[in-house]
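Morning. Coffee machine broken again, so started the prediction first thing and wrote up yesterday's gels while waiting. Chain of 213 residues, entered below exactly as on the submission form.
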Amino acid sequence: YGDLLAGQTVKTLTRQTDGSYRYRTHSQPAGLAKWFTSNEWIEEGAIRLAAGRVQALSFLKYREGGKPRRHSVSFDWLKKLARYGDGREEPLPAGAHDEGSVWFDLMLSPPPLDKTARALSINNGKRFIVYRYQALGLETLDTPLGRMQTLKVKRLVEPESGCGEARREDKACKPETDLSLWLAVQRGHVPVKIQMHERGQAAVLILNSMTGL
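Came back before lunch.
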């Protein structure tokens, strides 16, 4: 975050006996950030493959330490409903994802090089926000895993993304509009770099190691 090491994230993906997959993401502070916070964020979810695409099944995000926060959503594709942990339901958009499943979908089906933007409805455990993902081209990137050819992808927010006038003060409805990610072309399009701007500072996630891919 800026010039400081702020944290470490470990993401795991495990295949289940029924052919679906479960993923878990654990983020915790590191370096000087430990002096300012002990909060740890955890995401858990389930996905499956359907007609060659990743399909989200459930998503849970919560915080350990500090003020408790917990949001969850499940996807009922048969009835086309999104069901939230607080009891709410709403229509399930076609091809919708959550904040965890979308990364696996981008790995399996990255945006085309013709710069055609792909719109996806992404759920953060509380609501859907519509993003467009657009490939900007190929870039050679030096990473901790070596020099790689990557596909640079830009994430944009649709003007009508569910974050309208009535929600303009809702921080959860202010997604970063300039998030970019670099997908390793010859390593299953795994994200090796993610960059965003937050509160005037550049936050960068760099992949340091991976196994099983």
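The mean pLDDT is 87. Going to sketch it on the whiteboard this afternoon.
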